[in-house]
Write a structure and sequence with these properties.
Strand content: 5-15%
Strand order of the largest sheet: 2-1-5-7
Bound molecules: iron/sulfur cluster
Length: 319
């Protein structure tokens, strides 16, 4: 995959980039965000608590009340309530950051946490169910298709690969929108995502194919956003060894007439090793790519599945 001249933009909780913006003047630098991914993305650091004027250092805040609709209040001064300010800032940033392709949030934060943030009763006792950070919730409500993830969850190789796959898909869609959405553009886009979609969500793969197949005279600018929302929802489902194996088998089918019986046997052997967890996904893919270099197929060459993110990120070496 070629990395476009302009790197895709990802918004990030500023403390994850090493900025000393936490309530205690510290940071939560994430190696992934502040080192590994910086070659591939332009990060836009945002600290909502500092932005609304809470200062550094500051009294910590926490979520209190109904876990579905909590309030962000001071842990010392219970009169301090910044719920409205944080929510409004979330809406403001959602409007300002229209060109980002993803957002990495700091987990467990009453402002930035995406899920399972501790919520307390008014008397200070912790509740069983968790909530969502006020800023993150307001932001995400206005960007329902945007790939979002918490830094902690990105330690999981499958979730990391899934998130970055979606970020690059989002970026590709933004490019398509800039060119202007045409019937041809939409079907070509879907065609390139065919095998990726099949790996993530075989059911949605068929549904989305039918959606475009029955496009008729519908204006592609009308259908496009619906298609894209469904595509992003489908890609959110993580591909498994079973679904990847299915796609690898489909891909190997394109080599049926081109390679020798020994080579076919080797391909099947390596796909089997992947299915049984003996080798990571990169192994059968490298072998298939080798054969496709010798025996190019224009339809396969355009498939995003072969390289949905830059090779040097090595995201498929660990899944
Ligand atoms: S979690 Fe969010 S609000 Fe808290 S320090 Fe980090 S960026 Fe700021």
């Amino acid at each position: 995959m070629l990395v476009p001249a302009a790197k895709p933009k990802i918004a990030v909780s500023a403390c994850l980039m090493g900025a000393e913006v936490r309530y205690n003047g510290g940071h939560k630098a994430s190696r992934l965000c502040s080192r590994i991914l910086t070659d591939y993305f332009d990060f836009v650091p945002v600290c909502p608590e500092v932005a609304i004027g809470l200062g550094i250092p500051r009294e910590p805040i926490r979520l209190v009340g109904d876990p579905n609709q909590p309030e962000a209040v001071g842990t010392v001064d219970r009169q301090l309530n910044v719920t409205r300010l944080l929510a409004e800032y979330g809406q403001q940033m959602a409007a300002e950051l229209g060109d980002i392709c993803g957002y990495i949030f700091m987990q467990r934060s009453p402002s930035c946490g995406m899920e399972r943030v501790k919520v307390y009763h008014a008397n200070g006792a912790p509740q069983d169910s968790g909530g969502q950070g006020i800023y993150a919730r307001a932001f995400c409500a206005l960007h329902p298709d945007l790939p979002v993830e918490e830094d902690g969850r990105l330690n999981d190789p499958v979730l990391r690969e899934n998130f970055l796959t979606r970020v690059f898909a989002y970026s590709a869609w933004q490019h398509l929108l800039k060119e202007g959405l045409s019937r041809r553009g939409l079907t070509d886009f879907h065609s390139r995502y065919k095998y990726l979609l099949m790996a993530h969500n075989p059911v949605q793969y068929k549904i989305l194919g039918n959606l475009l197949g029955n496009m008729g005279h519908t204006d592609p600018r009308e259908l496009g956003p619906r298609y894209f929302s469904e595509l992003m929802a489908a890609l959110k489902k993580c591909a498994t060894r079973r679904t990847h194996t299915n796609v690898l088998q489909h891909l190997s089918g394109y080599l049926k007439q081109a390679i020798s019986a020994e080579d076919k046997q080797e391909v099947q052997h390596v796909i089997g090793q992947y299915r049984h967890g003996i080798v990571p996904l990169v192994v059968p893919l490298t072998l298939l790519k080798h054969h496709f270099r010798q025996h190019p197929d224009p339809y396969i060459a355009q498939q995003v599945y072969l390289q949905p993110h830059p090779e040097n990120l090595s995201l498929r070496n660990t899944i």
